[in-house]
Amino acid sequence: MSTTVTTAPLRLRPLEEQPASAGRRKRGLIYVRVSKAREDMISPELQVGHALSLARAENIDVIAEPIMDLGESGRQFEERRIEAIKQMARDKQFDVLILWIWSRFGRNLRESLQHLDTLMDYGVEVRAAKEDFDGKTTIGRFAIAQMLNIAELESNQKADSWRDAFERRRNKGLPHSNRGRFGYYRCETCPKWEFGKKLETCPKCRNGILKVDPVTGPVLAQL
To answer: What is the rounded average pLDDT of the residues 43-51?
Structure first.
């Protein structure tokens, strides 16, 4: 007596439901963030270089120029281009967002995880070239959260240090920063303050001797 074995058909996804990424290389988008933009900064090139190395190693096609947020804090997202990146993800323009390290995405743990979850809901992977964890796994998501938590801790510690420095200056009767007092100057030979340069005094100056500035002094008096 012969027995007929019936094999269940494979449940294949219909052609129209196949993912758009099937049969092609992943498309990558590089994101760069620098907290303080200045002429001699090298961080953007460093970040892009590491991101490109990851893309080459993983056979990811970088589809556009890197999206850069220069001079933007990692604690806030409103002024940055994260919403534009999310819109590109929503429109299926790329598959992988490549960072240098996780702190470049954000130094605010709660909001960073919210934005990352949104990107992953759109089917986008987020990779960090120097801190590469698989966000699709439980241990990978835990590691990413820890790196973002450390980034927030570092930011909070720096903020604490600045608050202490400002308090010390206030206690000594000094202005908020080292730009000098509005309405005064030290002497005729002292160099004027310039953005990005430390305020120096000339050898003839005695510490604490201030003179009324002929331009800003009357303004201060009127105020």
So the answer is: 94
Q: What's the rounded Cα separation, in Å, for the pair 118 and 81?
A: 15
Residue pair 38/196 in contact (Cβ under 8 Å)? The answer is yes
The Cα–Cα gap between 9 and 11 comes to 6
26: CB partners within 8 A, 6+ apart: 58, 59, 60, 61, 95, 96, 125
Close Cβ partners of 21 (under 8 Å, ≥ 6 residues apart): 95
175-196 pLDDT, tens per residue? 666 666 778 776 666 666 666 5
User: Can you tell me the distance from the alpha carbon of 106 to that of 199, in angstroms, rounded to the nearest whole number?
Assistant: 32
- Measure the CA–CA gap between 147 and 100, rounded to whole angstroms: 13
Q: Which residues pair with 30 in a beta bridge?
A: 98
Query: Which of 172, 156, 57 minimizes the C-alpha distance to 109?
Result: 156
Instruction: Name 181's Cβ contacts closer than 8 Å, sequence gap at least 6.
Output: 175, 210
Number of neighbouring beta carbons within 10 Å of residue 115 = 19
What pTM did the predictor assign?
0.65
Question: Which contiguous run of DSSP H or E holds residue 88?
Answer: helix 82-90
